[in-house]
Design goal:
By secondary structure, the chain is mostly helical. It has 16 helices and 3 strands. Strand 1 and strand 2 form a beta hairpin. This is Integrase family protein.
């Protein structure tokens, strides 16, 4: 009798267990059915079917792989993608940014505009794929590759980097990108080569040639470059009205200077005497440089011994001569920095100062007797 009772109780237990589980299964089915309905309702609003939605979800999860909660990473991926789509509508192609940057520089000097135009066009010619790239998505790596592909020498790349940075700077101001990628492009530091300075004998020949050639029309310009450190392009734009012999100063306007900043240059006695001689020759108004100045300046150098073949004239040689003799004689880099229009004295130390062969005596002669030309100096000695 006990065995049937046990069997009956076991059967009743199993029936009860199965009934309760079946109820749970039915409840789960109802929940799943409700979730399906909710999901289908969401999909209906998007216009996607179940397969398309599953494919998108799969791609999203694949794209958001990484450490951390995959759900949170997927949501972050969606947010960033949305921002990128909005940003794409607020940017322009690189070519458009180049044109806008060029337009923004119409008030600059012609030489500055020409350099900017040449470099930007070269960048586009050697990297045509950059033309249609939205500026917001151009990376520092792309900028570096473009510079290296477009220019061969390190000095050219440094100059082109400034232009490229200017293009992106304009783009940032216009709201076309949030930051300047060129700021993250590092180029090897330029190794500045020492530029030779004139000896006293070379200065004697140059000043003698300036005084005799073309009736002394080039004398004032040569003196301003040699004794005031004014750049060749700056002296070419200089007018006699900017030279005040009574106050002993030369006023360089912002639009005339290379860096775009106005500055005052001191006329020291040696330069004052030379300018007075030029005035006595009848040069008192108009441009400091005579007509056809580039050709006459080349010819003057040739007459002084720089034929361009056996003996070449380095760029800015007179400016370097001025800086080196000034530092040796006056020993004041701060004043020299102001006179030359530099924002700091770093460039003076790395590029301009060449004391080789300059003694206290030769520096004193430079600032005292060199203006007397060939009558005072013989073979570089007073």
């Amino acid at each position: 009798m006990e065995l049937p009772n046990i069997l009956i109780n076991k059967r009743l237990f199993l029936l009860d267990y199965g009934f309760r589980n079946r109820c749970k299964i039915d409840e789960m089915k109802e929940e799943i059915l409700a979730t399906d309905h909710a999901a289908l309702a969401i999909l209906k609003k998007t216009g996607l079917d179940v397969v398309e939605a599953a494919q998108l979800a799969h791609e999203l999860l694949q794209a958001s792989k990484g450490r951390g909660n995959r759900w949170k990473r997927a949501r972050e991926c969606i947010r960033l993608g949305e921002e990128a789509l909005v940003a794409r509508g607020k940017t322009v192609a690189f070519r458009k940014a180049v044109d806008e940057a060029m337009e923004a520089r119409q008030d600059r000097r012609k030489r500055t505009r020409d350099d900017f135009r040449y470099i930007s066009r070269r960048l586009l010619r050697f990297c045509p794929e950059m033309a249609r790239r939205p500026v917001r998505f151009i990376t520092p790596r792309e900028c570096r590759a473009c510079l290296e592909k477009s220019f061969d020498t390190l000095r050219q790349r440094h100059k082109a980097r400034l232009v490229l940075s200017g293009i992106f700077g304009t783009a940032v101001k216009r709201g076309w990108c949030t930051e300047n990628p060129v700021a993250y492009v590092d180029l090897p530091r330029l190794k500045e080569h020492s530029i030779p300075v004139l000896s006293l004998e070379e200065m004697r020949r140059l000043l003698a040639a300036a005084e005799e050639y073309d009736g002394g029309a080039c004398l004032a310009a040569v003196g301003l470059m040699l004794y005031a450190g004014i750049r060749p392009e700056e002296v070419r734009r200089l007018d006699w009205a900017q030279i005040n012999l009574r106050e002993g100063m030369v006023s360089l306007r912002a639009r005339h200077s290379k860096t775009g900043g106005a500055r005052i240059v001191t006329i020291r006695p040696v330069l004052g005497n030379l300018l007075e001689r030029a005035v006595a020759m009848g040069f008192v108004s108009g441009s400091v440089c005579p007509r056809n100045w580039p050709a006459k300046w080349r010819e003057l150098r040739r007459l002084a011994g720089w034929d361009g073949k056996e003996k070449k004239w380095p760029a800015d040689m007179l400016r370097h001569t001025f800086a080196s003799y000034f530092a040796r004689h006056f020993k004041n880099l701060h004043v020299l920095q102001m006179e030359m229009g530099h924002s700091s004295s770093d460039l003076l130390r790395t590029r301009y100062l060449n004391m080789e062969g300059i003694t206290e005596m030769t520096a004193a002669v430079f600032w005292g007797n060199c203006h007397a030309g060939r009558h005072t100096i013989n073979n570089g000695r007073p």
